Amino acid sequence: MAKAKLQLDRGPDHVSDEALRSLLGYEMKRAFNVVHHDLRSTLDPFGLRMLTFTALVLIVDNPGLRQSQLAAAMDMERPNLVVILDELEARALIVRDRDPTDRRAYALKPTRAGGRLCARAFEAVKAHERRLLADVDDESRAVVSAAFRKIQSREAKD
Amino acid sequence: MAKAKLQLDRGPDHVSDEALRSLLGYEMKRAFNVVHHDLRSTLDPFGLRMLTFTALVLIVDNPGLRQSQLAAAMDMERPNLVVILDELEARALIVRDRDPTDRRAYALKPTRAGGRLCARAFEAVKAHERRLLADVDDESRAVVSAAFRKIQSREAKD
DNA sequence: TATTGTTATACTCTATAACTATA
DNA sequence: TATAGTTATAGAGTATAACAATA
Predict the structure, then answer these.
(1) How high is the mean pLDDT of chain B?
(2) B77 interaction partners in chain A (CB closer than 8 Å)
(3) Using the CA of A79, which nucleotide's C1' is the nearest one?
(4) Is any atom of strand C within 7 angstroms of residue B128's beta carbon?
(5) Angle, nearest 10°, between helix axes B24-43 and A50-61?
(6) Which of A60, A93, A106, A130 lies 20 to 30 Å from B75, alpha-carbon distance?
(7) Does the CB of B97 sit below 7 A from strand D?
């Protein structure tokens, strides 16, 4: 990392990425790498990863939702969610209750322990993100957030 | 996608992700998913992916660089770069020349075909990104870009 | 000793088809 | 027939240890 930074910035072995820097995808991936790496180390003490954390938060905030709803909300395929929920269920952070109105579906609910872990992990993530965004003022954050949403809304327009 | 959008926006099966929306990582992943998905379909006709494209552009812009430099510039581990370069070399888009001053290292260089493909792919990516950013004005793009760089510079400060 | 590129390996995330049980 | 959850599988990205050749 430090080495990459050094080489990219200057020095005899300078690697020019000027052209790529003009691309949104490249800039965004580099920034996302940093955020994701930080998130990983932040969630590791809780035994969570980005996907298990996201699923847990959504279940805590939407108790009773179905797996298909959760998969759609998380932008992932249903089959891939199964192992994520298996993991959370095995750790007794959530339960899969049968939906009485539709016996095909499960109603996902957090356990007490799941709710507590979720709250603690969420605060830790927020604290870490505050550090990552320390140099970005509130106004800029709002602009970034608005841009993210506009990009997301462009999704279907291909 | 359309289904997720519908459920997230409103309706009887509305899934609330309000809490997660306050997290940079969540917003960024959603936006990056869109950008990455678009990039995939844009590069597919050229037989390239994000990583092979990025490596090719950096080699075209920095002919003669070493694999270790390229890996550092791409924020990835050296072993993972090997298969990426194998792919580009097998398609005769780049060559691995021996570095005369250090016989351990390779000097990576684009072939004529590699340079041509790179130029065409690059233009296609730029055009697609213009569409993705159609609703984001120039000033906001500059703010987003600056924020990305500030986040990247926070990396080592953990 | 340290470094370059490599192999091997393992884990995570992603994507698709096909199955079961219900509706 | 369609949907909810599941299984199986394959591709892609990521991370670490260990090796041969060279510095």
Answers:
(1) 91
(2) none
(3) D6
(4) no
(5) 120
(6) A130
(7) no
Q: Given this model, what pLDDT does residue A156 score?
A: 56
Q: According to the model, what pLDDT value does residue B154 have? A: 82
**Contact yes or no for B58 and A27 at CB 8 A:** no
CB of A58 within 8 A of CB of A70? yes
Assess contact for A73 and B17: CB atoms under 8 A. Answer: yes
Asked if residue A148 has pLDDT above 60, the reply is yes
- By C-alpha distance, which of A84, A81, A23, A63 is closest to B133? A23
Give B96 to chain A, closest Cα distance, Å. 17
CA-based nearest distance B98→chain A, Å: 17
Under an 8 A CB cutoff, do A4 and B34 touch?
A: no
SS3 of A77, please? coil
What mean pLDDT is reported for chain A?
Answer: 91
Stated as kind and residue range, the H or E segment containing B106 is strand B106-110
**Which residue type does A130 have?**
R
Angle (deg, nearest 10), helices B112-132 and A138-154: 100
Strands B106-110 and A106-110: unpaired
Task: Give dist(CA B54, CA A26) in Å, integer.
Answer: 8
CB of A79 lies under 7 Å from some atom of strand C: yes
CB of A136 within 7 Å of some strand D atom: no
In this prediction, residue B156 has a pLDDT band, given cuts at 50, 70 and 90, of low
Using one digit for the tens of pLDDT, what is the confidence trace for B31-83?
Answer: 999 999 999 999 999 999 999 999 999 999 999 999 999 999 999 999 999 99
What local confidence, expressed as pLDDT, does residue B6 receive?
35
Say what the pLDDT of residue B12 is: 58
pLDDT per position as a tens digit, B37-48: 999 999 999 999
Question: Which tokens sit at A117?
Answer: 């872990």
